[in-house]
Amino acid sequence: MIIVDPLDGTTNFVCGIPFSSVSVAVVRGGIPVAGVVAPLSGGWYFGVSGDGSYFGESLGQTESAERLQCAKRRMDRAILAVTCDQNDGRSRRLWWEWLSKLRPPVCFRLRIVESAAIELCWLACARMDAYLHPSDKPWDVAAGAIIAREAGVKLYSSSLNAWTLATPGIVATTPDVQVAVTDAIRRDRTEVLPENDTRRNERVSGRHEA
Q: By the number of CB atoms within 10 A of the CB, which of 52, 67, 90, 203 ranks highest?
């Protein structure tokens, strides 16, 4: 199966923000095995399962392209991209929960770029250390996921199970922040609510009502 996203980062494109791309992925058994991401700003990111991932000016020319390798930074120096579908209530709730658990000083900086394909490619080329989205669609991440994985990135679903295109959302991390990110996500939310947040007191005392 071939998955094409003719324009990832639509809002960026409409507003003249230079972070949009075209992407194509080849998928077998629910897993991308080859992918190409073409940022509108120029160049090509491409990757094939077992053969690595690359960035170059010419598609498929690995001899002249840069071989990609994800970053090796500690969590306190890590840059995380955490975003969501603002039109989806569940996605917004999980996004806010993740932000409360991962925001500085847990990590170094947070970013929202609004282009899953580009963010996954930036993860592959060491510009970022993790990308999290509770409800990305298959066409948003198919090409970027294989490029990131071939650069050493670890992929999970939003519930931290094995990631496939059929699972909801994506949590993508470098090996160096994998444990810190996944442990933070698993923590009970009452541990990260501010002391003066009434919701925290309600949950701790058992008075919270749904």
A: 52
CA–CA distance, 138 with 2 (Å, rounded to integer): 11
Q: What is the largest CA-CA distance in the chain?
A: 63
Q: What is the DSSP-derived secondary structure letter of residue 88? A: -
Which residue among 67, 91, 124 closes a domain? 67
What pTM does this model have?
0.85
> Of the candidates 91, 122, 113, 88, which has an alpha carbon nearest to the alpha carbon of residue 17?
113
Q: Is residue 19 part of a domain?
A: yes
Domain count for the chain: 2
Q: What pLDDT was estimated at residue 142?
A: 97
Q: Looking at residues 115-133, what average pLDDT do you find?
A: 97
Whether residue 102 is found in the same domain as residue 161: yes
Residue found by looking up tokens 């955490």 in the block: 82
Domain termination site, one of 67, 94, 115:
67
d(CA 149, CA 50): 10
Is the pLDDT at 1 greater than 80? The verdict is yes
CB 171 within 8 A of CB 160: yes
Q: Go through the chain and tell me how many residues it has.
A: 210
Percent of the chain with pLDDT over 90: 78
Q: Name residues whose C-beta falls within 8 Å of residue 91's C-beta, 6 or more positions apart in sequence.
A: 84, 85, 133, 134, 135, 169
